[in-house]
Input
Amino acid sequence: MRSFIDQHRERFGVEPICKCLWVAPSAYWRHVARQRNPSLRNARARRDEFLIPHSQQVWQTNFQVYGADKVWRQLPREGIEVARCTVERLMRRLGWRGVMRGKVIRPTYGDAQTPCPLDRVNRISKADRPNQLWVSDFTYVSTWQGFVYAAFVIDVFARRIVGGWVSRSMRTDFVLDALEQALYARQPELDANLIHHSDRGSQYVSIRYSECLCEAGIEPSVGSKGDSYDNALGSTD
Output
């Protein structure tokens, strides 16, 4: 915002721009004064200005693999005492990140070419009776022998898991087993107007999964793309 005012102040004037942006002109002029005279900055800003180049040197010297913890431990070796939270704050502000160990897991893969059911829930995760709305999702847990995936089906009315399954892979079979367990446990009527809601993962919009829902008389529903709130109940419970 300050750079925007700097760019257009000669053409429109500072006060008119600040009025449109709902910014106090005094705040901008205070910023200008501090830019011209660094001694007017507060102690934290002056401290940050001193720490940034030293932290950057440590980060760059170590091939940008150091995170906040290792940068913080290295600075005292160079005679600079600083709190770890300060290093973490500066690195986050400047976009510096260290290398993170571990494999990145993408649980679901959406296919733009695959037709998806409509969203019949619209984030309203409420039900007036059992077997009215089921929410499905799956997650993963890292173990010493690799990743383990856990699928589950939740009855929104009861707020409990009615079907679940654990697998070493993310194939459709594993989420289908969780659904079949829920069907066996609850045995909903064909005319129960039951809605099954999930994300747009390829497992849930697959032909086999859709056929299973159709045979059980269950109406499918999926959330919008890339929106975790559309399946918040399944993602948090």
